[in-house]
Amino acid sequence: MTVVVAFVSRKGGVxxxxxxxxxxxxxxxxxxxxxxADLDLDQRTSMRWQRLREAEGVYPPLDVRPYRxxxxxxxxxxxADVLVVxxxxxxxxxxxxxxxxxxxxxxxxxxSFDELQPAVELFYSLNASGVPKARLxxxxxxxxxxxxxxxxRAYVEVADFNLLPGAVVERARYRExxxxxxxxxxxxxxDLSGPPGIALGALLSKxxxxxxxxxxxxxxxxxxGAPAPMPVPLQHGRGLSSYSKAAG
Length: 248
Fold this sequence. Notes:
single chain, 7-stranded parallel beta sheet, alpha/beta
């Protein structure tokens, strides 16, 4: 069963593609069969990044493809463990569609009122349209110092939406990494213990838990309570996994 994670936002430049690419890279490195769908057919940010990644020979290789909508993306990668969906901003129809079918919806937001208020309003709108609040998560992005992160976190908590731990900070080396086809989490010295990695680690945990629940539902009552097969760790530069086959 494929777990769908949609990255959405009304505003551009908040770190949506940055986080989508990083999550795809982390999931692939953990041995999950991972696909990244680029729904922004005008910008094609993730597609351009994928071409850089291929040219640089970055490991692990990622399955990144353009799609017109999330339904075609899901149909296009039936064997994927994880489908990361990078949606365009300013296209409310695609945002609503992706949020309605995704198991996890992530909206990056910066520290300013100009970014936080639209983020909260979008989640209010999605929740009113029927998307459960439990699926909606805000990820703090492009933070410059702890003080503004604390203020942004307080704002989101008052709005009563799920807030991922950690935060993506603003670093020049992250942009340099993107220019070479790397995700920011693949920069030397980065791992899941730092503030940006903590947010990705939290998402990865949610994906694994959702995959376990989907596996149990598919297996029926007979398999209920049995843990889903875990991904095979990366060994000696290989990213092969029996996870998707075992999950069925």
